[in-house]
UniProtKB/TrEMBL annotation:
InterPro entries referenced in this protein's UniProt entry, alphabetically: EF-Ts_dimer_sf, Transl_elong_EFTs/EF1B, Transl_elong_EFTs/EF1B_dimer, Transl_elong_Ts_CS, UBA-like_sf
UniProt function note: Associates with the EF-Tu.GDP complex and induces the exchange of GDP to GTP. It remains bound to the aminoacyl-tRNA.EF-Tu.GTP complex up to the GTP hydrolysis stage on the ribosome.
Ranges for domain Translation elongation factor EFTs/EF1B dimerisation: 75-278
Region entry Involved in Mg(2+) ion dislocation from EF-Tu, spans: 84-87
Protein name: Elongation factor Ts
Length: 279
């Protein structure tokens, strides 16, 4: 029988993130040699990576870093997915996310393809993720990366459960004056998930489709033809108030709008990005 202790099992689980039975089998096969057991876990895990490709990875975390950039700031946000929340809250997975984020910041990667090819240590992000997928025994995916620059960039990370890492992340870019309310606005965005910053940013085809739906709905409800223009405009305003950040009722004071709050601070919002794990 291989010579190892419960403490050895615990140490190897913490180092690799692998399950208890996988660790015990590896230690048995390695005759108690921890380094050899790690190699066995990785080799067996890598063989299973391809088999896991078709599985869904809809859990995970969001990580953010804001750095100085010329005369302003740039916020970098990444979403790293796992199959289960068990792995998402594992310290091995969390440390991996920190390395992926650091690589995104250092490389300037603006899309997933560039990030996977970015260097981290003596390997690439893609290879590092595959190695961790092997030891953790789950499909891991770098789902997306975002970069947002501005005079000031605020951020907010939200935990949907106390025992899980952040699953909602927001970046908000403003001018100097807007920085006063930027974090509060970021918290609002996390809760109300707007799709656009201003009405002008809503694509023309989206507006046209919403207007068509509003007209058809009003006619189906038997509204008078003469009243349709006013009714449709009212419904379009409702759409904008739901989808456009500056038109939304402000979370901390629904009697006003986000736009009025920013205007009251004498500032300007120049952009935002919101990630929610799996969404």
């Amino acid at each position: 029988m291989a010579n190892y202790t419960a403490a050895d099992i615990k140490a190897l689980r913490e180092k690799t993130g692998a399950g208890m039975m996988d660790v015990k089998k590896a230690l048995d096969e390695a005759d108690g040699d921890a380094e050899k057991a790690i190699e066995i876990i990785r080799v067996k895990g890598l063989k299973g990576v391809a088999k896991r490709e078709g599985r869904a990875a809809s859990d995970g975390l969001v990580a953010i870093e804001v750095v100085a950039d010329g005369e302003g700031e740039t916020g970098v946000m990444v979403e790293l997915n796992s199959e289960t929340d068990f792995v998402a809250k594992n310290q091995v997975f969390i440390t991996l996310a920190e390395k992926v984020l650091a690589a995104a910041v250092a490389s300037g990667a603006a899309d997933v393809e560039a990030l996977l090819a970015a260097p981290t240590g003596d390997t690439t992000v893609g290879a590092l993720v595959d190695e961790h997928a092997a030891t953790l025994g789950e499909k891991l995916v770098v789902r997306r990366v975002a970069r947002l620059s501005g005079t000031k960039v605020a951020h907010y990370l939200h935990r949907t459960a106390k025992d899980l890492p952040p699953q909602v992340g927001v970046l908000v870019a403003t001018d100097a004056a807007g920085a006063e309310v930027a974090r509060d606005v970021a918290m609002h965005i996390a809760a109300y998930s707007p799709q656009y910053l201003t009405r002008d940013e809503v694509p023309e085809d989206v507006v046209a489709n919403e207007r068509r739906i509003a007209e058809e709905t009003s006619r189906n409800e038997g509204k008078p033809e003469a009243a349709l223009p006013k009714i449709v405009e009212g419904r379009m305003n409702g759409f904008f108030k739901e989808s456009v950040l500056l038109d939304q009722a402000y979370a901390r004071d629904p009697k006003t709008t986000v736009g009025k709050v920013v205007e009251g601070a004498g500032g300007t919002l120049t952009g935002f990005v919101r990630f929610r794990v799996g969404a």
